[in-house]
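ok so i was messing around last nite and threw this chain in just to see what happens. nothing serious, just curious
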Amino acid sequence: MTTYRLHYFPESGNSYKLALMLTLCGQSFEPVWTDFGGGVTRTAEWRASVNPMGEIPVLEEDGVRLTQTAPILLRLAKRYGQFGAANEQEQFEVLRWLFWDNQKLSGFMATYRYRRAFTPSPDAKVQDFLRKRVDDFLGILAGEVAQRPFIIGDRPTVADLSLCGYLSFPVEESGYDLAARFPDVHAWLQRIAALPGWKPPYELLPGPRLKRYV
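result:
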């Protein structure tokens, strides 16, 4: 039986993606809280012993450290036969949305939310720029999930679990009332939340939180 240790901090949407995937696949993991706010991931010691890329999350699999969320999701999908692609065309679509999410939706939402909620004086012009980009990406996502239950079809894949990561945190942090502004995205998130075993981020990622300013 494979043993997992997940290095994370609670506010990390990418950490949530892996915690959720493991949970939905019926796999337990040891949570390893990381003092991201204290700057530990920027230290030479942490990078030498945990992740030379200086990023969270890190998933230890029987002692082997794995990094980068998307390939880990794909690895877990293949191992457990869940949330993966059924054929070559689906695999293309899963990869397409994983890459888009990393570069666009998660990339910009993570930055916008972190600056808004967890920094004392975010620059208003920068936030306005980021929010306009997030609005655009949420509109793209809404247009897709309005047409089908999940991002590539009738069943959820790791692409859905990736896309939902940063959208699953409390509205107070992002300021996005998705039910009001993007109801199709909200309905899609509700379908994900109805999956057996689903839990919200802070139930899967315990421990001390970053100071919140909103």
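not much to say yet. The mean pLDDT is 98.
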